[in-house]
Amino acid sequence: MIVKKAEIRYNKSKAGVLIQDENGYHFTYDEAYLKSSSAEPVSLTLPLRKDKYSAQVLFPFFDGLIPEGWLLDIAEKNWKLNPRDRMGLLLACCKDCIGAVSVHPHNDSIG
To answer: What CA dihedral angle connects 30, 31, 35 and 39, to 10 degrees?
Structure first.
């Protein structure tokens, strides 16, 4: 399996990294972000902590950022994305979300 990696930003600051690998999904807050006096959790379901979060399915908060309905249909057709590839949809569609959180391709490649 190809590992997919996303940089999660909160108000344009790097808040952490979201990874999809053969074991599921993992979210880890950035150390510098955690030390910042202005650090806020990206979601109430993902409170600030040093330890990584892991799950078999995409965390509901991140899944909720993915568009639905006609907008999702457009994204799937234009970028030829599989609707089951939640991480691919997140990376393609969530760079400019409403709210403080945005999702960007991570700058180092894996896999």
So the answer is: 10
